[in-house]
Amino acid sequence: MIKDSPNPPSDSTAFNSAAHGAINHYLNPPEKPEPSTEDHSLFTVRAGLDVETLLANASEDLSSAQALASHLAFEIDGTPRSVALGICRMLEGVKLLVDRAATQGKNAT
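The chain above was modelled as a monomer; its predicted structure follows.
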């Protein structure tokens, strides 16, 4: 006679263990690990740099970004041009602030 289902495993403890493992896997998933507190930043600033060096580099980076935005503004038309000009002017303002901080830092020493 052919059975509709195969014979159960002869070792019922292994069967029960496997069944409980499957049930726990789906009904009681493992807790998510705590988020890592490590810094995953792509870039870092080297420790020990003086303020003048930091401000000089920030000023140069702002000048470069302003030049890019200005160049872009004259390559496009309409609303995107206004957006690019707005970015350019904001960068110019931030650059002026950084430059002022750099000159005040030099005068303070």
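Residues 51-108 form one domain.
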